[in-house]
TrEMBL record:
PANTHER family: CAMP-BINDING PROTEIN 1-RELATED (PTHR32097:SF17). It comes from Mucilaginibacter phyllosphaerae. One of its GO terms (biological process) is response to tellurium ion. Keywords: Tellurium resistance. The keyword S-adenosyl-L-methionine does not apply. This is Tellurium resistance protein TerZ. Residues 1-194 form the TerD domain.
Length: 204
């Protein structure tokens, strides 16, 4: 049974059989904006271009690497991005992820102690207008889900209105094991570099 994460919840990556997750996919899914027609008649869909990114830090909060649509693999090859999705779900929620970042803890640079996932609106489209956005942590590949470990609704609160950047969550290494902190906080940033700096200052 998948864990339905709540904002601020911290979980270990231990499965029901006692084994630890070693390879995870973090899939991000979001919807297109529905726009009403003139005088309220009819409607149309506006494509939404969100960008999921991943920043890797050491124990001293020093940035080691960033994986995003312009850099699809980390230097150690342990983190990989599926590529840029420019539209979101134009036909409603299809249950599939728009962007997927895979993470192999076993191949990760040993210096990495924090792996932060952030989301930025490339065109500056307000999160408050996007009908849904969620992430799920699962075992499998970007094209195939073996088992969903946890799900997290990341943008349904009123506090996201007026924001175009958010910190989704952070994997962190503590006492010899990896855990996940579901943050789900909007930021005032507009660009990826700013969001990464916010993570460094406020969330590590």
């Amino acid at each position: 049974m998948a864990i339905n994460l709540q904002k601020g919840q911290r979980i270990s990556l231990e499965k029901t059989n006692g084994s630890k997750l070693q390879n995870v996919c973090v899939g991000i899914n979001w919807g297109a904006i529905e726009k009403k027609g003139l005088f309220g008649f009819g409607s149309s869909k506006e494509a939404v271009d969100l960008d999921a990114s991943c920043a890797l830090f050491d124990e001293n909060k020093k940035l080691i690497d960033v994986v995003y649509f312009g850099n699809l693999k980390s230097k150690d090859q342990a983190v990989r991005h599926s590529g840029d999705d420019l539209t979101g779900d134009m036909g409603g929620d299809d249950g599939l992820d728009n962007e997927v970042i895979t993470l192999d803890f076993g191949s990760l640079n040993p210096a990495v102690k924090h792996v932060a996932f952030v989301l930025n609106s490339f065109k500056g489209q307000d999160f408050g207008t996007i009908p849904f956005a969620s992430i799920r942590i699962y075992e499998g590949t970007p094209k195939h889900v073996n088992e969903i470990f946890a799900t997290y609704d990341i943008a349904n609160g009123s506090d996201f209105k007026g924001h175009v950047s958010m910190v989704m969550g952070i994997f962190y290494h503590k006492n010899g094991e990896w855990k996940f902190n579901a943050i789900g906080e909007p930021t005032k940033d507009r660009k990826l570099e700013e969001t990464v700096n916010t993570v460094m200052r406020n969330y590590l």
